[in-house]
Amino acid sequence: MTIPVIDLTDALRPGGARNAEVARQIRAAGEATGFFYVIHHGLDAELLARQFEVAEAVLNLPEADKEAIALKHSKAARGYECIGSQTLDANARPDVKESFYCGIEYPPEHPYVQRGYYSYGANQWPAGLPWVRGQSLAYTEAMCALAQRLMQLMALSLDLPEDYFDHTHGNPMVTLRMIRYPAHPADADERTFGAGAHTDWGAVTLLAQDAWGGLEVQMPDGSWVEATPIEGSLVINLGDMIPRWTNGRYHSNPHRVRNTRSGGAPRYSIPFFYTPDYMARVEAVPGSVPEGTAPRYAPCTVGEHLQEMYRKTYGLQAA
Ligand SMILES: O=C(O)CCC(=O)C(=O)O
Ligand SMILES: [Fe+2]
C-alpha cells in the first residue's frame, strides 16, 4: 500500500468539475490510512517557500532570543520549544526536534481567550524579525481556507452535503508549527526518533516538508511507509477527530519521523494543525452508524475531545 496523490485541480470550490472524483479519492484514503498528498492545491509557491525562511530564521536565532519567546511564557501554547521537550511516543526517547508554534491571534477580549480555552490567545513573536508575523499570519489564513475546503470535500466523500461541516468553521483552533530536526544522532538506538510514533488529535493536518524526507506512516498491516517528499505537494493526514466523526470509518494512522537521509543537514517541516471551533459538536455523521448498533464514540465537543486526549497521554503535550 502507498500514500495516494490527490490532484485538487477543479475541486477547490463548490461546483468544481472534479469534486465528486476527488471526494471518492479522499474516501479511499480515509478508509485506508487517513494519509494522502495533495497537489495543485492553489497555495502560492512563494508563500510556502517563505514560510520555510521563517522556520530557518526563527530557529537559527541565538538561544537567548529563542528562550525569550519560550512556550512556557505563553498562556496559549505559542512560542519556542527546545530539543527534548516533547515525547510523542511514551515508549521512545524524547523527540530530537525543536520547534516554534504560532497561530490565529484571538484578541484578549475574545470569549474563548477569556475562558482560557487551550491555544486561544496571543502569539509570541521574535524580536528583530518583524517580517515573520505578517508572513506567518498570511500563511495561516491560506492554510485555514484550504483545510476548510478539505472538510467540505470530506463531507462530500461521506455522501453528505458539501457544507455539512461549515458550521464548525468559526473560531478554529489552528496551530502552525515550524520544526527543525537535527541530523539523526550518531548514538541513536531503535527508541530514538525526531518525532516518536503518534496520531494527530485535531481534524486535519496540512504538512509542508523540505526535500530530505524522513516522515513515515503506519499502514494497516503495521508496516511503515515513507511519505517521500513530492515537490509542491502537501501531506494531508486526518486527526483523531475524524474517526470520531465517521464512527471509525476513516482512520488517523500513527506516523513518526527520523532524519536519517539528509547527510547531516537539518530537516525542516511545517505542519499546520486544523481543529474546528472549540465549542463545535463532534458526533457520528448521518449514515455512519449501522442500523441497530451503538455509536463507537460518545458525542462530545471539540474541546472535550482535546481534553480527553490530554488525559489519555498524561504528561505529554498536544501533537
Ligand atoms: O515533521 C513531520 O514530517 C511530521 C510532524 C508531525 O507529525 C507532527 O508534528 O505532528
Ligand atoms: Fe503528527
Automatic annotation (TrEMBL):
<keyword id="KW-0560">Oxidoreductase</keyword>
<dbReference type="InterPro" id="IPR050231">
    <property type="entry name" value="Iron_ascorbate_oxido_reductase"/>
</dbReference>
<dbReference type="GO" id="GO:0009693">
    <property type="term" value="P:ethylene biosynthetic process"/>
</dbReference>
<keyword id="KW-0408">Iron</keyword>
<comment type="pathway">
    <text>Alkene biosynthesis; ethylene biosynthesis via 2-oxoglutarate.</text>
</comment>
<dbReference type="GO" id="GO:0046872">
    <property type="term" value="F:metal ion binding"/>
</dbReference>
<keyword id="KW-0266">Ethylene biosynthesis</keyword>
<dbReference type="InterPro" id="IPR005123">
    <property type="entry name" value="Oxoglu/Fe-dep_dioxygenase_dom"/>
</dbReference>
<dbReference type="InterPro" id="IPR026992">
    <property type="entry name" value="DIOX_N"/>
</dbReference>
<comment type="similarity">
    <text>Belongs to the iron/ascorbate-dependent oxidoreductase family.</text>
</comment>
<dbReference type="GO" id="GO:0102276">
    <property type="term" value="F:2-oxoglutarate oxygenase/decarboxylase (ethylene-forming) activity"/>
</dbReference>
<dbReference type="InterPro" id="IPR027443">
    <property type="entry name" value="IPNS-like_sf"/>
</dbReference>
<dbReference type="Pfam" id="PF03171">
    <property type="entry name" value="2OG-FeII_Oxy"/>
</dbReference>
<feature type="domain" description="Fe2OG dioxygenase">
    <location>
        <begin position="171"/>
        <end position="276"/>
    </location>
</feature>
<keyword id="KW-0479">Metal-binding</keyword>
<protein>
    <recommendedName>
        <fullName>2-oxoglutarate-dependent ethylene/succinate-forming enzyme</fullName>
        <ecNumber>1.13.12.19</ecNumber>
        <ecNumber>1.14.20.7</ecNumber>
    </recommendedName>
</protein>
<dbReference type="InterPro" id="IPR044861">
    <property type="entry name" value="IPNS-like_FE2OG_OXY"/>
</dbReference>
<dbReference type="Pfam" id="PF14226">
    <property type="entry name" value="DIOX_N"/>
</dbReference>
